[in-house]
Specification:
The structure holds 2 protein chains of 2 kinds.
Chain A (H helix, E strand, L loop, with lengths): L2 H23 L2 H24 L10 H19 L2 H4 L7 H8 L10 H11 L3 H12 L4 H8 L3 H18 L1
Chain B lengths: L2 H9 L8 H25 L2 H34 L9 H14 L2 H24 L4 H25 L6 H19 L3 H4 L4 H24 L2 H7 L2 H10 L2 H5 L1
Helix pairs in contact in B: 2-4, 2-6, 5-6, 5-7, 6-9, 7-9, 9-10, 9-11
The chains are: A mainly alpha, B mainly alpha.
Chain lengths: 171, 247
């Protein structure tokens, strides 16, 4: 992958990767750190493939690889820190933090639907959270999600279906 | 609840996004890192000469450290001034600008944002003049345009913080330069920076509003226009009519 292709990927995916991580770690600072790390790791991954003489082996889906790296970083993040420390606090609204730390600022009036779906999403198991964000927020295809998860397309479709049902129950 | 209703609710989460300043800063870091690696790779491809270069690397590092210690950050900042997007020193230049923005007072922030937008336009002109490869030129231009748009967005956000006549005049002078630079921008990228004209108009409206308010407060319109550069007033009025501001 050439530099300009990588930068193009960054322009297309930086906000999405940040949001995907944010919805899992619930902290703007940690989301920024992990997003940076995801992109640096992605570039290193490409470079190490090149050094190993695998530059002819084209990455089928760079976006899927990027999400996989981000997902693994979130898993590592939770391994390092205790879950209780980072657990979702329904009263300590994520949106208050967003308002303080991002461009969202005063421009966006926080609506209860968003608060509700965020809370419900936070109660899902990790894999279900991820597939809902990928499928319906970032609009990845089932095929792309299957590449991230390392599962078949059929199995992915079932996971997405179950995740949606679980989210409906939580709402 | 139908799937469609649920999807609509999920999509509301797309309001979560990082700050533009942060995405811009990470983009620059990534570009600097890649460029650094590319330069190293090129260096290692020069055979004997490359090996000789590697031999003097520790010495070069020592000399650089001494220079930094003796010259201080000033030297690094000076050296970074003419740098262009994608160059190693460019990250230092932008880090310095971010620092200036952080420590500036609210009133000074707008002026600084306009000044930095001006720098991006000057960089665009320089990229166009320099003999870069088409690919390199395209990449640098794209980066400078993104940064220029970020600077203009920051101007729009901070425009209301102009409160005194002195601040208004200082910003007006920088805006006039910005307008001149914008008029001289290469034709092929004019479309990409077209929105800036609208922001300049907004800045001028705000400046005129501050000046009108200030002169009404003093009851001495003549005195204020004595102090303010007449050319600035003419410039402001060509873009915005005073009647519009007073209304």
């Amino acid at each position: 992958m050439k530099k300009r292709h990588f930068i193009k990927l960054y322009d297309q995916c930086a906000s999405r990767i940040y949001r995907f991580i944010y919805l899992k770690v619930n902290s703007p600072e940690d989301s920024e750190d992990l997003t940076s790390e995801a992109f640096f790791k992605f570039w290193k991954n490409i470079k190490s493939n090149k050094e190993k003489g695998l530059n002819n082996k084209k990455i089928n889906n760079p976006r899927a690889l990027l999400y996989r790296i981000a997902n693994n970083l979130v898993i590592d993040f939770y391994r390092k820190k205790s879950r209780t420390e980072l657990a979702m606090d329904p009263d300590d609204s994520i949106l208050t933090k967003i308002r303080d730390k991002t461009d969202l600022g005063a421009k966006v009036r926080i609506d209860s639907d968003m608060e509700g779906v965020k809370k419900a999403l936070g109660q899902l198991k990790d894999e279900h959270q991820s597939v809902i964000v990928w499928r319906y927020l970032d609009e990845l295809s089932n095929k792309e999600i299957s590449q991230i998860l390392g599962k078949s397309e059929g199995a992915t479709r079932v996971i997405v279906h179950r995740a949606m049902n679980a989210l409906k129950k939580n709402l | 609840m139908t799937d469609q209703d649920l999807i609509k609710k999920i999509k509301k989460l797309d309001r979560i996004h990082p700050s533009r300043q942060w995405t811009g800063s990470l983009r620059r870091s990534l570009v600097a890192q890649i460029d650094y690696e590319l330069v190293r790779e090129k260096g290692s491809g020069f055979g004997f000469f490359g090996g000789w270069l590697r031999g003097i690397q520790p010495m070069a590092l020592a000399v650089s450290l001494i220079l930094i210690l003796v010259g201080g950050p000033w030297l690094a900042l000076k050296a970074s001034e003419p740098s262009l997007p994608g160059e190693f020193l460019y990250a230092i230049k932008r880090a310095n600008e971010d620092l200036q923005k952080t420590i500036a007072s609210n009133g000074e922030k707008t002026g600084l944002a306009v000044e930095f937008a001006n720098r991006r336009l000057e960089e665009l002109a320089k990229i166009n003049e320099d003999s870069f490869s088409p690919e390199e030129k395209d990449e640098k231009t794209k980066e400078a345009i993104i940064d220029f748009k970020d600077s203009m967005a920051s101007v729009s956000q901070q425009i209301k913080s102009i409160s005194s006549k002195e601040e208004a005049v200082a910003v007006a002078k920088k805006t006039r330069k910005l307008k001149e630079n914008l008029d001289n921008i290469p034709a092929e990228i004019k479309g990409d920076v077209a929105e800036a004209e609208k922001t300049i108009e907004e800045i001028n409206k705000e400046i005129l509003a501050v000046l009108v308010k200030d002169s009404e407060k003093d009851g001495e319109i003549a005195t204020s226009t004595d102090v303010i550069d007449q050319e600035i007033i003419i410039f402001l009025e060509t873009v915005t009519s005073t009647e519009e501001v007073v209304e």
